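Q: Hi! First time asking for a complex rather than a single chain. Here are the components, and I think there are two in total. Is that enough to go on?
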Amino acid sequence: MHVPNGFLDAPTSVATGVVATAAVGVALVKARKELDDRTAPMAGLIAAFIFAVQMLNFPVGAGTSGHLMGGALAAVLVGPWTAVLSTSVVFIVQALLFADGGITALGTNIVLMGLSTVLVGYLVFLGMRAVLPKRASFVPLAAALGALVSVPVASLVFVVLYAIGGNADIDLAALATAMVGVHVLIGIGEAVITYLAVASIVSVRPDLVHGARPLLEQRRLVIHDTAPATSSQETSA
Amino acid sequence: MSTATEDRTDQAEGRPRVATRWVLAGTLLVSLLLAGVVSYYAASSPDGLEQVSQTLGFHTTETDHELSDSPFADYGTAGVSDGRLSGGIAGVAGVLIVLVLAGGLTWAVRRRRPEKDSADEASTGETAA
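A: Yes, that's all I need. Here is the structure of the assembled complex.
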């Protein structure tokens, strides 16, 4: 969904640029809590992984394709603030080196494919994690559901931006219908990729997955607190 | 403290712990393979937004990319005619560039590991700007 130059007018592009810059600025401060000596390299690698997977367009029906956006994936793996930084780096590199996404549209693309998918993906993930069984093995499913929802919502954010500052006079209802229609399908691809990526790390090192850590802590607390009295119930090895 | 409890978790699940560096190396290897090799087989049809813009007719307002003749424009490598190689080089370069930039940024922003006598607060105040 990389927006090229010329789709949105200058004021809207400047406005999204300001929003993107402010969000990255806040993320630079907030991400500190999510990042330590182990998770910082992980965040760099997740950005690299998202760049790689964004090269892999998959077909969604006749003559159309889509690719991962990655906000939900990054937010669950490395934390939402870090995900804003990681995805922003991807879009900046794509715009400056790969001519993918206009430079005047860079703020728009960070808002659409970075901020929107991180925010929606992570909120849905948190909701699902609260509802699903409190085990790390359910984290990939919760992440996939976040990813599934995040893509059509991002496409609606584009519709809103187009309503504000689109350069062509088109029927906005038709735009919304068409955008959501195709991005529901792309969202399914996003969900599958997110599931596979999160599951592969959760299965070997759940403690490296930001969104799985509270579940591990919870279980640890149960074991520690009751260890002297009821250790027989908990012993597994 | 956190290291000790993680070990416990892994013991409780009864499996050997995979070292962090192997998880990182695995992620890098997968990324390089996807960008360097698998990307050649990606679908080349227009993406969702492009397709919608063509159907509804607003694609006509698109203007050229500022850097459309940069060396890696459109995920190819300037001067390399073989499609597989051209895309592969661009993909591998992109993965490494993103890794260095994003990894460098997150490394600079991270919390420093507290010193042994835990001068915790003192070591975490300065680098955010």
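A: Residues 1-12, 116-129 of chain B have pLDDT under 50 and may be disordered. Let me know if you'd like any chain examined more closely.
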